[in-house]
Design a protein that fits this description.
alpha/beta, 5-stranded parallel beta sheet, 3-stranded antiparallel beta sheet, about 55% helix
Amino acid sequence: MNETLGQLPNSPDSEFAVLGALLLAPEALTDLQLSADDFFLASNRAIFQAIQSRAERGLPFDAVTLGDDFAGNELVHPATLIDLATTVPSAANIAGYAATVREKAIRRQLIEAASQLDAKARNCAEPADTIADSMAELATAASRVVDKPQEPMNMFGDHDIPALNPNWLPPGIAKYAYDQARVIGCAPEMLAFSCIATAAAATHDAIVVRPKSNEGWTERACLWVMVVAPPGSKKSVAVKRPQAPLRQIDSELYDQYSAKKGEFDKEDQVYKLKAKAAIKSEAKGDVMGYEEPVSAPVRPPQVRAIINDATNEKLGELLMDNPRGMMMYQDEIAVWFGGHDLYSKGSGKDRGMAIGAYEGGSYIFDRVGRGTVRVPNWSYSLIGTSQPEKIKEIVAKKADDGLMQRFMVIEIPRQVLHGDEDVPEDAAARNNYESAIRGMWAKVPMEGSECHVLLSDGANKVRREFTLWVDKVSNTDGLPAMIQGHLSKWTGLWSRLCLTYHSYGMGERGQWPSAMEITESTARRVTALMKQYLLPQALRFYSDTAREADPIFALAQKVSAMVLAKGLLRVTNRDLTHNFQPWRSAIPSTKAGVISLLRGAGWVLGTDNQRQTGTESAWAINPRVHVMFGERAAAEKIKRQQGAETMKALRDAAAGRD
């Protein structure tokens, strides 16, 4: 049908062809970039909505099934559906038909936006408000004209943190953590991740997961967790409570060690006296007047389950006796960060040793007066707490060596409120959890051997999908270096979490972790935890931290805020230089980095849309930013208006015009 004068742009023939082609090739739906509102005729909109609804529910759609959906519906006659299925001969040209439908829809959208702008402009009190109100509508239409603009990334570090879903946790841990959170009156996330860290520490380091059965790559259940929460959030008690079974084990081990150490001290004293007497008798030539001393007694190992604080020197001594690894708890982890290099005078060696503890394996100490000491397995799981301001100050100073990026950061918002009711605990949930941790601790492989845990076929499929996703996300140019560094470790972290979840479940059953493969269900729980909870946490924490530690990212945030406040769809180097002081003071390499970062983040469109004339560069802004961040744009505009009014008031006061 041809368009006639005065009629809104539309193409019923193209709409009909798209719908008919979809019945022939349902898989083409995801590539069309169409919505129901793009269809001009109401009947076609209804048919497309029905197709989308069935596709979202995983149901097939054809003339017969769609006919059932429209039974008794006067808008869509069954004969129309039969025509769709029989009239369109092929789906080969569906992309062309869809492009026509989309182009007509954009024209109608622009006409509607222009009509509303005309009406508002004739009656508005303030032209600037009219422009701002119309920006989102125009930007939405414009975003469909450019060539598939990337979805822009949130540059401001205020990513929403979803509530932790208990289905993302091992069921036993979820039941215990949420019950104890109710008893304490705190956020369950703090307890849940302390449970996970405790389970990791209870798993012997010789129990490893081999993600690829034909490759030698293995991962231990070694995890580092940082809980960042404001004062009054009960973070200390919440994080310490799940450690109770490990602390009890540690107390029992200490009692055993004390008894053995007492016997050793007695035997050692006797041995030293006999050895001394033997030396004296031999010196006098009296070879018959002394008792031959037995061999020196062997010092009993000091096995530990958990420690609160220790220097690297002390850790070296403890880990000599604990090749299975230990758990370290830091009530204020900023102290742990700040304590590094305290004795190495800023050489960075202590931070390097800390990173080595995450990776595990043999470590050799060379110390003056003590010679060379080899630690068989330099490894410990770590959990600590901090207040937001303290940890950001620490991280901003030393954020480039990868130490921080090895942590799972769990930030608890200040606005989370908790009750103060005196409620009884679920004793069965607690007993089950503590029994599982003890069961995990009791599984000790033969000395010098490893216990390998494999992935099931289903879990391996999930691993491959997750690895491809991580590779794609971590290589996004728009991410700050700290986030990229953190995400680059996620493939290994995924495997460690899978092993921890699996080991906990086997601990509940009293079985060896290698008795079963890691299930697809476990793999999907871990994937959901990382993508739906840990990723928003990381984006929020590292974006905020990057503003303090990364000048390029900090300036990119300011440019982004200016773009929103001014409603820009195009920004030039000249505009930035003349009207934006932070840009004037930045060096050329920083400016280039800002544009590159914004392009990677989807705010600045690609190089094909850049225009450069002489000394002026102009960059097209992805119009989607004004749609996605409309509320922030309004807030930025108010903030700038208030700032301008304050400055004017100050100038008037200085000039005596108040």
